[in-house]
Write a structure and sequence with these properties.
It is built from 13 helices and 20 strands. The chain is α/β, with parallel strands linked by helices. Strands 1, 2, 13, 14, 15, 16, 17, 18, 19 and 20 form a 10-stranded mixed β-sheet that branches. Strands 3-4-5-6-7-9-11-12 form an 8-stranded parallel β-barrel, surrounded by 5 helices. Helix 7 runs parallel beside helix 8. The two termini are 22 Å apart. 45% of the residues are buried.
Length: 460
Amino acid sequence: MSSYTPADFDFTFLEEGFCARDCVEQRINESSMSDDKDAFYVADLGDVLKKHLRWMRALPRVTPFYAVKCNDSRAVVMTLASLGTGFDCASKNEIQLVQSLGVDPSRIIYANPCKQVSQIKYASAHGVQMMTFDSEVELMKVARCHENAKLVLRIATDDSKAVCRLSVKFGATLKSSRLLLERARELGLDIIGVSFHVGSGCTDPETYSQAISDARCVFDMGAELGYNMTLLDIGGGFPGSDDSKLKFEEITAVINPALDKYFPADSGVRVIAEPGRYYVCSAYMLAVNIIAKKVVMKEQSASDDEDDGANDRTLMYYVNDGVYGSFNCILYDHAHVLPTLHKKPKPDERTHPCSIWGPTCDGLDRIVEQCILPDLPLGEWLLFENMGAYTVAASSTFNGFQKPDIHYVMSRSAWQRIQQISTQGLHGPIEEACPSDLPSCCRKESSLELPAKPCPAHVL
């Protein structure tokens, strides 16, 4: 495993008693004397560490293979590489990124059931052997282009209760799975296991139990045909923030007994998963600035004559990031976002129905259809939490608008823990990561003054 230095990550150390939110406030304060108020992210790599330790406590038998497509930021991938995770790559470029950080090919699964021939050849040339398939055509391509492939059969699941369904595109039925295993045997291919994905944003944990049961059936089919399968890949679908309807531990409470029932620890089957949003969603906070504003007066009826005018207006706020940028998650990931006020409103401050729009000239560029906010001035900031998943990875520069800068931070205790895990691995009881990383001074509102000492210690 390659040993990274802080300079490799390009992050800012948090001083004792400071947190990522303080750095957001610091950067906003620094911009107050300038017209340069571009949108920006602050990403806490220590939060990624916490998620990893939480995973290892809740799913001790399951090795995470991070889904790079969710957020391919180099600092994130490097952090997870240091923690010893595997990687779910869907393309040549994702494989290149992961291997450029010194990750061994054995820690990569090429988890795209429909691959371009040239990219199969690339995987073969660079030692990536594990890859998924769900069709006879894919088997024939692999047989022709990758003599050392270790194939994983992806089966379809009931993902009707997921936010983003995937089995409409990928996955073999149980009936066709037998036919594919027979065809693989004819082609002399090595089938090492079964994978599935219950859909991104799973809302029913029992879906995992049924999928694990179906995987057991396919393992038994393979055994009848002479295959000794040793890998189960339970895919993704894990929530990335604690405000989701389905909690992470509610899912693991279903997965663990299902694994014990169908793939007990002494079965010789290795279990992996492909979490994406789980690791990165809550690590990122996005700050956007109000660049324009429109007041829309509603028509008043005679019965409204005595109204004091408090609710006679709707406010349209325009900010400097939108659905073609970071908020592409609204279109592609069915995300629902709501802003947090940068400044705490006064107790008696009136609020109004509002909508929030991005900066492009497209009428589709709407971030929030309706919310309730005070009458905010131009140049005010709005904050969006849980913005690490399927945001920066798919953003564009449509209309010439730049992507927000990302400022990475980490506490010294988190950095020390990552270094310890990188060199020594995880041994003994897994404790909560760095309780001091979330001090009481990490405020939700910025009406309080910042401490005199600045948030960053130094940028590496």
